Amino acid sequence: MKRRWDRAAGWLDNRTGIQTAVRQFLYEEIPASSGWHQVFGSVAIFLFLVQAFTGALLAFNYAPTPGDAYNSLRYILTEITGGRLIRGLHHWGASMMIVVVVLHMVQVFLYGAYKKPREATWMVGVVLLLVTLAYGLTGYLLPWDNRAYWGTVVTTQIAGQAPVIGPYLTRFLGGGGAVGVVTFARFYGLHVLLLPPFTLLLIAVHVFLVRKHGVAPAPGDELLPRKKFYPHQVFMDTVAISVAFAVLFLMAVAVRVPLEQLADPTDTNYTPRPEWYFLFLFQTLKFFPGALEVVGSVVLPGLAILALILVPFLDRGKMIKVTQRTFAGAFVLLAAAGWTALTARAIATTPASAKTQIDYSGPTDWMQLSPEEMAGVAYFREENCITCHVIGNKGTKVGPDLTGAAIHRDAKWMIQHFKRPSMVRPGSSMPPIQLSDQQLNALAAFLLKLNPNNASALENAPDFAAAGALVYTTSHCGTCHMVNGVGVKLGPPLNGLSKRQSRSWVEDHFADPQKLSPGSVMPPYQFSTKDRDNLTTYLMSLPE
Amino acid sequence: MEKQDVQEISRRSFYVGAIYGLWGVIAAALGLPAVAYLFFPPKVRSENNWVEIGDVTKLTPNEPVELTFRRNRVDGWKILSEKSTAWVVKKSDNQVVAFGPQCTHLGCAYHWEETKNEFLCPCHSSMFSIDGKVVSGPAPRPLDQFETKVEGTRLLVGDLRQPEPAA
Hints:
The structure holds two protein chains of two kinds.
Chain A: H1 2-16, H2 18-26, E1 29-30, H3 40-59, H4 69-78, H5 83-111, H6 119-139, H7 146-160, H8 166-172, H9 181-213, E2 227-228, H10 229-254, H11 279-285, H12 293-314, H13 326-348, H14 352-355, H15 371-382, H16 411-419, H17 421-424, H18 437-449, H19 455-459, H20 463-474, E3 482-483, E4 486-487, H21 497-500, H22 503-511, H23 513-516, H24 529-541
Antiparallel strand pairs in A: 1-2, 3-4
Helix pairs in contact in A: 3-5, 3-10, 4-5, 5-6, 5-10, 6-9, 6-12, 7-8, 11-12, 11-13, 15-18, 15-20, 16-18, 20-24, 22-24
Chain B: H1 3-39, E1 51-55, E2 65-75, E3 78-90, E4 96-99, E5 111-113, E6 118-120, E7 127-128, E8 134-136, E9 145-151, E10 154-161
Antiparallel strand pairs in B: 1-10, 2-3, 3-4, 4-9, 5-6, 6-7, 7-8, 9-10
């Protein structure tokens, strides 16, 4: 068997040379000082491949037009098995790739590995960093939620400020400064059609140059015997890749990637913020008001990129040990401190309204519930019904599955059962629920709404919605207002409120309705801060 | 063999084993979710599938008629409202059967041949009897049937299903 396998491998090598090529690649000699500090390049390539793989998977279920992008992404997140994980890997993989590429550059910079004859390797590396950032920029628009839309509006405006090429850049990115279908198509085309082959080409050139000049040796390496790349360095690279992948996988599983509401070009209250790795640039802009803005948006970043490219020509000294490169070390520390300070400041100055966003990346069946049914969710949670009952055939508990048709009688029967369980169902060990008739009615209304298809979505309705609906029902808002077709039309219907009014307007309106709506018959409400926040977020989440 | 050489060999074996093992884990952690993502069916969204398609009192027993109606169909992230048809047969016992409009061979639209008293598919000449059974031709199974129910005089159709194979 082994001989047959060897013969087949020999035939393949004879015809293609693949075995010889792989051997040459793996058994290349590297300096004795090579080690853990040189793993970042391999991790970056691995992350690029993960991005390409997960990106291709997303593309199988994603429709790249503004009309469909958002809904298809919601479909991936809420209906496709593993969709949330794949999107999580892609989203956090983008961030991690930027971190690793920067770490790779920092390591090369600290060790002075860009020095003669490796100047071209460094410069191609800088272009790869820019390409990685370009992925972040173009991919940011693709979910087509408010965050994506408004972030890209700012980006395209900045691009338009560039001296000489600004108008051409604007035209290239979709023209006219307005973000719409053309901009979307351009960003998508760049993200999936142009950048990936360009990246592959650059990686190939980068790796070729690394091989041509060899891994940069440290001073004193010439006196020591050289090592083979395989298996020692490959082992280190593999361990680093595994650690990076484990962190990425954990983030994709544990940290939910938010999806805000569908892009709304008429939303005048949205405060756009770029992705975290661009926040320092965003903050830098604030130091250059008015006509000077172009300095912060284009001139300074442009000079920084130029300086980065020219690093090998600015520092032409001899190779010295990393521990002796104090200037390089101090420069990196200073840059890191500057970046951290600007980013922290940008986060600290983000207004609250930009932080309170409803996450649309989960099922939104709860949005269709009436306020009373939604309040029923709150009572369901308060009474800890889930301790004894199953929802949607998940496991077995003492009480019956509440999605089953068997318990779905009319509300009257259910309320009687809540009050005196053992009388209505002889043998039941359920304790009576100590709630008022109105509250029990809400609980029954919610339970009657449950079916196996919506159970998990309704059970996981956000806390603010349950709490907000509770405030809504106990304040009797439904005697004048209508939500999801339930209530009275005396006051304005509240569906689609977020399209008509800002959050702060709604909050102020509770306290003094006549001030904001002269002639209104609505009485003032003095809610606690928590109740007001929950009620406002709930009302702002109601669909049109 | 010297002790140093033995150590070198076992260290090398450890490296190689670890490289293969770790890449195996990474491939599985990426590959298995990808398989689930691509091949597991998406969660079914609940839709009220019953659609009114006509008045049963207007049907003549044993005279198939093609009724047109609009129904919602979940297509990925979209719910499409589309035109559909059903061949409806009211039997002698007033039971109503609604057949899906496509031949069970390769999906062509078939029609009722009054002269032959059979459904005929023009693509490959499959023929079905008035109760949907295959009479001749390449069709592998009887015509698919919509679930039906009658409310008052209104005829409603639900999901399209393949008939149970005869015992």
